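Curious: why these numbers?
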Amino acid sequence: DVWDFRGFLKSHSDFVRMRPAFDKVVPLFAHWQVLSGRNSEQEALLDALATDFDLTYPQLRELARSRELTNEVICRMLHCVTGGRACHFLSLLLTPTPTQYVRNYARLRNFLGFNADNPTWQYRLNLEVPSDFVVAEQLFLLDRWEVEIDVQLGRPDTSQHGYRTHMRNIVHAGRTVQVKSITEWCLPTCDILTFDYSSGKRAPEDAVGF
């Protein structure tokens, strides 16, 4: 189903992201323990893992045993956890205190509230936050996927600037992004990105209203 956006994103993630091999897991966590007490080096390792790797909930829990960095592990790595919403919820429960839970939830709000099957929304994303960057990356992927669907279905171009994108009013670091095609713009890893996303997906005819 071309309208299964969540399935499309999962297939893409499975294809491009890596999982630690079975024989590499023990050395990986042994190295994590060796770095214990050197927070900056552990944070650098977290950033490297967050960029390209997927982890299971038990693997995240092992990383979160580092008490000084428990909240950073959760906030930087939650988007890497496989298993869907249930595992994300369990990962959040690793937060030491209720106050910290509220703070972590606020940092992860854009990721936790993102609905791939209904992406229409006004977004404000901090690209320095790994979970926000992932949301932006997924929306860019969905945009290109929807453009291809529109072309196949022969839909008219209703985009803001005439290149079929479903993203409007794109502003990065306070400046309007002006490109002939959004695919020409390399997604940066810093500053604030704001835009409106208007999906061409519609509810099925047999959908039941609230």
Summary: The beta strands are 121-126, 167-172, 175-176, 192-197. The chain has a mean pLDDT of 93.
